[in-house]
Request: fold
Amino acid sequence: MDALGDPVRRRLVELLADGGRSAGQLASAVGAEFGISQPAASRHLRVLREAGVVDSVPHGAVRLYSVRPEALDEVEVWARRIRRFWDGHLDALETEVARGARKRRMRDDD
Reply:
């Protein structure tokens, strides 16, 4: 999950969500968005590969990258825990907002 802490790396994973891409395609995309060089994009891809978030396979003269779906399981578990925490709090907030609106309507009716 640490590998996804960087916005460039998160964007690389987003780009790969639609399917495999070459290192050059990925470097061009994040280079244009984040203003980074091809070597910098390659370093980000290496971090993702070493963390097990993406796979890469040589395909002729290029490397093709793809997301390892099982690597995102940890992120999914974390998001579920956070969501459980916030769901209860947001439900309580919704109740309080409804109470406040009801009180305002009652005051306005008087």
